[in-house]
Specification:
- The structure is a single chain.
- The protein has 2 domains: 45 residues, SH3 type barrels, CATH 2.30.30; 202 residues, Fumarylacetoacetase-like, C-terminal domain (Fumarylacetoacetate hydrolase, domain 2, Alpha-Beta Complex), CATH 3.90.850.10.
- It is built from 5 helices and 19 strands.
- The strands form 3 sheets. Strands 1, 2, 3, 4, 5, 6, 7, 8, 11, 12, 14 and 17 form a 12-stranded mixed β-sheet that branches. The chain has a 5-stranded mixed β-sheet with strand order 9-19-18-15-16, with no helix packed on it. A two-stranded antiparallel sheet has the order 10-13.
- Strand 18 and strand 19 form a beta hairpin.
- The chain is globular, with a radius of gyration of 18 Å.
Length: 259
C-alpha cells in the first residue's frame, strides 16, 4: 500500500492511498486500519506523508560519506534530531537561510514507525516499521561546523523534505539511493552499504526513547554531497519509492524585517 497525505479542496489535510497513479480517499488511521474508498480524490497537492512527533537522523552511516568530509567512521550510531517544523512535502520550497553560506542536500532512506516501539530487539525490528519513503537531510554546513553541534545547521524550517508516499510493502536492504541537482547526478549509493543496518538502528534507538506511529528515522546519506544555490531543483530518488523533488529559494528579506 502507498499511503499519501494530501490537501483537500477546502485546504484541510487528508489521508489517501495511491492506486495505479490515482489518489483514492481513505478512511481510518495509517498503520492501524487505513482503508481506501472507491472515491478518487482528484488532482491534489501531496503533503509530507507523515506528521512525525520525532524526527531522528543517523549521521555518517555510510563509510564513503564520512571519509569525503575527513571524518572518522563512528563506532556507534551518531544520532541527532530535527524539529518537526523542518518537515515539508513533495514540491515544497527549501528555504536557503540568510544566515548560511553553504547548503547541502543529503538523500536518505526514511523508516516510518508503524507501532509504538520501546526496547525493540533487532530481531523484531521489522515488525515496528510501518513503511518507507524518501527523505532529504538539508544541512547548513557552515553553521553545523561553527556551532560544534548540529541542531541549528540541520534544523531550519523546510530542512526535512519527506515523500512522496509511504510504501508499506517494501524490502529496503539493498536499494539505490540517489540525489540529482538540476538533472546532474551527485549521490548514488545503496542501502546494503549502511554501516549500521536497519534492525541495529531500531534496537539502538528504542533503548533510550519511545517511538510512536508516524515518527521517522533518516538512515544516513551516501557520498557525493555538494552544495546547492537558490534556484536549484533537488530530486531524491529511491528504487521503488518514487522521487522527492524540491526547489531551493532564498530567504525572503521581508521575513527578516518582521513584516
Amino acid at each position: 500500500m502507498k499511503i499519501v497525505r494530501y490537501e483537500t479542496a477546502g485546504g484541510a489535510p487528508a489521508w489517501g492511498v495511491l492506486d495505479d497513479g490515482v489518489v483514492l480517499a481513505a478512511r481510518g488511521t495509517p498503520f492501524l486500519d487505513l482503508e481506501p474508498t472507491a472515491e478518487p480524490a482528484g488532482k491534489v497537492r501531496l503533503l509530507a506523508p507523515v506528521t512525525p512527533r520525532t524526527v531522528l537522523c543517523v549521521g555518517r552511516n555510510y563509510r564513503s560519506h564520512a571519509e569525503e568530509f575527513g571524518n572518522k567512521v563512528p563506532e556507534e550510531p551518531l544520532l541527532f534530531l530535527k524539529p518537526p517544523a523542518a518537515v515539508v512535502g513533495p514540491d515544497a520550497e527549501v528555504v536557503y537561510p540568510a544566515l548560511s553560506r553553504r547548503l547541502d542536500p543529503e538523500a536518505e532512506l526514511v523508516l516510518v514507525i508503524g507501532r509504538t516501539a520501546r526496547h525493540v530487539a533487532a530481531a523484531d525490528a521489522w515488525a515496528v516499521i510501518g513503511g518507507y519513503t524518501c527523505g532529504n537531510d538539508i544541512t547548513a554546513r557552515d553553521i553545523q561546523k561553527s556551532d560544534g553541534q548540529w541542531t541549528r545547521g540541520k534544523g531550519f524550517d523546510t530542512f526535512c523534505p519527506i515523500g512522496p508516499w509511504v510504501e508499506t510493502d517494501y524490502d529496503p536492504t539493498d536499494v539505490a539511493v540517489s540525489c540529482t541537482v538540476d538533472g546532474e547526478r551527485r549521490q548514488d549509493g545503496r542501502t546494503k552499504d549502511l554501516i549500521f543496518p536497519i534492525p541495529y538502528l531500531i534496537e539502538y534507538i528504542t533503548r533510550f526513547t519511545t517511538l510512536e506511529p508516524g515518527d521517522v528515522i533518516l538512515s544516513g546519506t551516501p557520498e557525493g554531497v555538494r552544495p546547492v544555490e537558490p534556484g536549484n531543483t533537488i530530486t531524491v530518488e529511491i528504487d521503488g519509492l518514487g522521487s522527492l523533488t524540491n526547489t531551493v529559494v532564498a530567504e525572503d528579506p521581508a521575513r527578516l524585517a518582521g513584516s
